[in-house]
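Is NAP placement plausible here? Inputs below.
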Amino acid sequence: MEKIALVGIGEIARTQHVPVLSESTDWELATTVSRLGTVDGVTAYSDFDTMLSENPDIKTVSLCVPPQPRFEYATKAIAAGRNVMLEKPPGQSLAEVHALQTMATEAGVSLFTTWHSRAASGIQLAKEWLADKTVTGGFINWKESVRKYHMGQDWIFEPGGMGVFDPGINALSILTEILPLPTHLTAAELVFPNNRDTPISAELHFHNNIRAVFDWTVENEQFWDIDVTTTAGTINLKDGGSRIIIDGQETLATEDVEYKNLYSQMAELVRNKQSDVDLSPMIHVADAFTLGKRRVTDAFEW
Ligand code: NAP
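Reply from A.M.:
I modeled the complex. Tokens:
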């Protein structure tokens, strides 16, 4: 098993990374780095530089900090010759991640921009089904309560935090994976609370009659659904792609395997000395900030 360090012990590290790593046959969670968080039974550092210098045998680092500080951690890890796995979104800007890609190539280490929603069990099935079809339209309905899923995470409303695009980019990571031909944004409207720097809801229009609604203001229910219509039928991806319905027939319903798949992919990349860097979901987000009309709404407080 390869040793791995987990950096940023917060919500996603605790709920997904730690349980998956504890059962992994590829990885041993050798240490953590977090200013406050720790994992029972695992050596903990609060300083990243110290961890890197004291553990030359840990060749891979998985970064679970929010996007804003991630570039600094990733550059240090790559400069120290470590393979790097990035939570989504892989950075706070496209250029940052292009820079990391160049650094990783020059250093000869693996860089993986993970998109956990792409690793859901139904995504490859949807991609295969759509591969020979002509898309005529699509609707992405991606709504969740910001208070339920992001309570107190102020970084998400700060520049680089992406606001409602933090969950919305998961839908875009699926869309960019399954469509037989790429699409592009044609118009958008972004709604900003008057006391925040990132949007709380957004509507996006893409070429090919594809529309997306991202909304954080729903309180008691959530929707992570994508419908794609083609000249030869309709496919519905429900619950983030864990359920697939083709022409009204439930075709697949499985448990959550996203992070298990991501860590298997990272192990393979490291074994083969390869990288996997795909920024296509983030390009749509950047285009939404470029093309989008801005509307201001009431202040948001937790
Ligand atoms: P989080 O709990 O708010 O933050 C993760 C950890 O990062 C914190 O516990 C904190 O640990 C550290 N951190 C926070 N701000 C920092 C800063 N400015 N500098 C250095 N470290 C900082 O966030 P999260 O929900 O786990 O999300 C982290 C990433 O995972 C995001 O990119 C998010 O999009 C992605 N993600 C989240 C979810 C989810 O459901 N939450 C799902 C999938 C992906 P210390 O204070 O102990 O250092």
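Short version: DSSP finds nine helices and 15 strands in the chain.
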